[in-house]
Amino acid sequence: MTTLRPFTCTDLFKFNNVNLDPLTETYGLSFYMQYLAHWPEYFQVAESPSGEIMGYIMGKAEGIAENWHGHVTALTVSPDHRRLGLAAMLIKFLEELSEKKQAYFVDLFVRVSNKVAIKMYQQLGYIVYRVVLEYYNGDPDENAYDMRKALSRDVTKKSVIPLTHPVRPEEVD
Description:
Oligomer: single chain
Enzyme class: transferase
Mean pLDDT: 91
Low-confidence stretches: none
Structural class: alpha+beta
Number of strands: 7
Pfam families: Acetyltransf_1 (PF00583)
Largest sheet: 7 strands, mixed
Radius of gyration: 16 Å
Subunit structure: Component of the N-terminal acetyltransferase B (NatB) complex which is composed of NAA20 and NAA25.
Family: Belongs to the acetyltransferase family. ARD1 subfamily.
Distance between the termini: 39 Å
Keywords: Acyltransferase, Transferase
């Protein structure tokens, strides 16, 4: 049985196998520590009965007024543990936490080329809100979708009305 638990500092020394996927963004230790310090409740790990890290989600709550939302910074599952529903379990956890924090929506960024992830997010109720040009390190060949899912506080679903034009990374709030 998989256990969902808070990410801890010692997990930084045993989650490398999860980050081996070329579509997974890997950050420096200070970045992970910043999230762990500021938004510990948004940083969860899926662990096997043997203690192996199967996947994790790292996120935060941000924004003001009707832009107050939960954000998925990273969601990844080890190649050995895919197609078990772990990603859906992790994102559902973040959505429920965002509901408790009275967020209007949850958003995430995904590579336009990552068709498998896009399909999964759509099946979980996310829509493409906008295209962010050259989002990944200024790579002209790799744009991102800003995908969103409205939460119960957004009664009119205003947060998920798609933009009709692409934006640049510096325009993302």
